[in-house]
Every structure is written in C-alpha cells, then in structure tokens.
Amino acid sequence: MDKLGQYLRLIRVKSWIKNLFVFVPLIFSKNLFDPVSVSHSIMAFLAFSLASGFVYVINDYFDAEYDRLHPVKKYRPIAYGKVTGREAVIIAAALIILSIVILNEVSARFKYIIAAYIVINFLYTLYLKNLVILDVMIIAFGFLLRVAGGAVVINVELSGWLMLATIFIALFMAVIKRRVEYAAFENNSQKRKVLFDYSIELLNLLTAVSGGGIIISYALYSISEHTMREFDTEYLVYTVLFVIYGVFRYLYLAIKQNRGEDPAELVLSDIPTILNAILYILCVLLIIYG
C-alpha cells in the first residue's frame, strides 16, 4: 500500500486539478448539460491527466539530483529513494499507453494538442526550464493547450479574452512559483540554474503584470458585446469580484506566507480560496444557465 502511495505521489494526482481547465470551454459554451460534450470533455481531462502524469515522472527522473538539495522536493519519491529509476520508466510507459488508448476515442486535432503538450514539456525538462522568462512562458502555454484541447474536443470556439485570462492565470502561478523558490534559495549556490537570472524585484514586477492581466482580460471578456449577446445578460461582470479576490488572496499567501511553490497544494488547502472558487462557479453557472 505504501508503494502504491509513492506511485500516486510520483504522478502527482493532486496536481491533476490543473487539468480542470479543459472544462472551461464546456461551461462557457453553454454545453454543460449536453451528454456528448460532457463525455468528450471527461475524456480530454483523463488524457491530459495521464499525459501530465507522464511529464511529472520524466521531470522527477531527470531532476532527482537537484531535488535532493531542495528542502521540500527532496521528499519526492525518486529523489527520496522510494521509487527506483526503473520503476519510474515503467510507470511513464504505462501512462503513455493508457493515454493512447483514450486518444483513440477523440478527434485527431485533440491528439495533436496532447502530442504538442508532451513534446514541449519534455523539451522544458531537458533544457527550456533553464531559459529565463521562457521557462514561465512554457508553463503558461501548457495551460493554454488544456483550454484549447477542451474547445477542440467539443468543437467550439472560445473567446480570445478568455484565452488571454487563462494565459495570465498560468503566468501568475508560474511566476509566483519561481518567486517562492527564489526566496527559499536566494543565498544558496545550489539553486536551480534559471534562478540566477531572476531577482526578487523582477519577479515582483512579473507577478504584478500577470496578476493585473488576469483581472483586466477577464473583466473585458465579461463586458464584451460577444459575451453579453451569447449569454443574453450583463451580469457576468459581477463575477470579476471573485477573480479579484482570488488574485489578491494568492498574492497574500505567496508574499506573506511564502506559499505557492505547489499551486495545487495551495488551492486545495486554503479554505478562503476554496470557498471563493465555489462561489465563483455557482455564480457563473447561475448567470449562464439560470
């Protein structure tokens, strides 16, 4: 049982919450109660979860030496010696095989998106994560692919403003992840290579830009003529309040409590953030489908 727990930690099941972004097109295209669209979105979620699990395993396999120097990451299964390199390779292969099985049930265009996600993240693990600015851009692109995949799999188009909001959300979390990591290793010569090219001042500026980008792009989406015409209401603008609170709360946790290196853990453990997310979702559903 302990071994199974280590395997689940290796593929980071908790981080699969990020793949919920594939449901964004389902909700905002007013297809939430269409059984076919729902089933396709669930398949997309499973495909991205298996693909991201593969990426996490590969990342931990190559980063094991660095992770052993990290105060938190040293407890990851491979770095801590709970899972061997051979076991990691077998698990990675199994995840790819399972994802291929699922991909046989979806459209060809979605397969290309999953392939792009895997290839880009593989390159990120090998090299791109060492390139300043580009490292966080690659993370943001991964979230964009999730939303694009969710749209493709149910054959709908998504607002450009909503896509921009997704990019800024991902950039925001990625920059804060770097900021927390930088603060933990600021005076440590063993820190990740790319952290030498950052500074707290730069990361603070990037955080402000990306955080502001979330609020502005979502606000513009909520008041755009296309959105009001699509949903036949002007009330979506009121949900901006939840977005603002979410951004501010995340900033508070990152700056005052030095959290955010693991976005999934932060979101799933902070009660105010959870309640804000629930209220936001309920309001959006009421406004769009009520």
Number of helices: 12
What count of domains describes the coordinates?
A: 2
Number of strands: 0
Largest sheet: none
Q: Which percent range fits the helix content?
A: over 70%
Hey, roughly how much beta strand do the residues contain?
Answer: under 5%
* Order of helix and strand elements from N to C terminus: HHHHHHHHHHHH
Shape: globular
CATH topology group of the largest domain? Tetracycline Repressor, domain 2
In CATH terms, the superfamily of the largest domain is UbiA prenyltransferase
Structural class: mainly alpha
Brief digest:
With 290 residues, the chain is an all-alpha fold.
Walk me through the structure.
One of its GO terms (molecular function) is transferase activity, transferring alkyl or aryl (other than methyl) groups. It is found in: Membrane. It comes from Melioribacter roseus (strain DSM 23840 / JCM 17771 / VKM B-2668 / P3M-2). It is a multi-pass membrane protein. The protein is built from twelve helices and no strands. By secondary structure, the protein is mainly alpha-helical. The protein has two domains: 1-158, UbiA prenyltransferase (Tetracycline Repressor, domain 2), CATH 1.10.357; 159-290. Helix 3 (35-67) runs antiparallel to helix 6, helix 5 (108-126) packs antiparallel against helix 6 (134-153) and helix 8 (200-223) runs antiparallel to helix 10.
